[in-house]
Amino acid sequence: MTLKTTDPAQTPEQVFTITQSERESMKGHAAKVIWLTGLSGSGKSTIANALELALHQQHKHTYILDGDNVRRNLNKDLGFHPESRSENVRRIAEVALMMKDAGLIVIVTCIAPFAKDRDAARALIGDAGFIEVYVSTPLAVCEQRDPKGLYKKSRAGLMKNMTGIDSPYEIPGQPELVLDTRVCSVVESVGRILGWLEQ
Amino acid sequence: MTLKTTDPAQTPEQVFTITQSERESMKGHAAKVIWLTGLSGSGKSTIANALELALHQQHKHTYILDGDNVRRNLNKDLGFHPESRSENVRRIAEVALMMKDAGLIVIVTCIAPFAKDRDAARALIGDAGFIEVYVSTPLAVCEQRDPKGLYKKSRAGLMKNMTGIDSPYEIPGQPELVLDTRVCSVVESVGRILGWLEQ
């Protein structure tokens, strides 16, 4: 006989009466996860904010799950080594899925540098409800913007594991959208995402 | 010079234009977290389901954050030792706070056996938006119901760390509501929570 701790896999999933479908009906729109991936400084948060504003004006129910903010609360126990980055993305994907289940249009801004983690997020959330937006602003431009001063710190050797400098960013292979903020304005970026949502 | 990994505390919090207040206005009601605590089998999920149904019929925007289900997804890396239980409650509280920020009425069903963890959840979410509901059904009744067969397994020595058997449950000191399902029907329980929400 093996002594075990309670294993949640042994307990049946709790199924509740109200589902995503009823919540979507009440809200008047489909629930989605829009995942903005790209380097620090690429413009993810700026696009997310403008997108949420536009959706809110259309009376759509949104939430921004911001990677930096989540690292201050839910994921404050995680660092920046590869396995911690994967766990960070896994947890964000799980929360995004629950918020989608709640009927929301969830806008995720998260570097999510590894393809396998983004693919796992897509597999978890489901292809139909997942829009991967690659904000493709090149490193040189992001580094020039350096809104948080992180590239400067990284180049000065004051910080380790900076994506694009001493930690890799794997370019998305088949994102639904690619937005290069050098040539695509914030308004145009939002327009392209809204266009995709309306498809 | 100390080499550090990127420290999120060094980066300013991202602040977005649309806030909880705008989301509440769109939804037409205040966002809240209703936390049902109590032993396994006490009736938390049954009350949560009936409460969500009632709120949905009032066109209120809800989500049930179910402790058992969260252990199958977001918290599937956690076990049932005291420190894992605390981390389980911490993460649920963080997600509940984000969902409240999204404007939802969040119904949490989670044993949350330790007072310090429930108090931390309340402190995080804020007193005004937090309703602690102690589902006080006594152990003997929960054990008789044993909807998941966990008490039986625990008594047979097939399982460790079962709350109420070989892991403690600390009774809430000042919950907003106490519901003993021996004497309080599901309909009455829901009515009492709705009454509290309308205050």
SSE topology sketch:
The structure is a homodimer of 199-residue chains.
Chain A: E1 4-5, H1 20-27, E2 32-37, H2 44-57, E3 62-66, H3 67-70, H4 82-101, E4 105-109, H5 115-125, E5 130-135, H6 139-145, H7 150-155, E6 159-160, E7 177-179, H8 186-198
Parallel strand pairs in A: 2-4, 2-5, 3-4, 5-7
Helix pairs in contact in A: 2-8, 4-5
Structural descriptors:
alpha/beta; homodimer; 8 helices
Low-confidence stretches of chain A: 1-5
Q: How far apart, in Å, are the first and last alpha carbons of chain A?
A: 56 Å
Largest sheet of chain A: 5 strands, parallel
- How helical, in percent, are the residues of chain A? 40-55%
Account of the protein in words:
The structure is a homodimer of 199-residue chains. The first copy, chain A, is an alpha/beta fold. Chain A has eight helices and seven strands; from the N terminus they run βαβαβααβαβααββα. Chain A has helices at residues 20-27, 44-57, 67-70, 82-101, 115-125, 139-145, 150-155, 186-198; strands at residues 4-5, 32-37, 62-66, 105-109, 130-135, 159-160, 177-179. In chain A, strands 3-4-2-5-7 form a five-stranded parallel beta sheet, sandwiched between helices. The termini of chain A are far apart. The interface between A and B is large, with 65 and 65 residues.
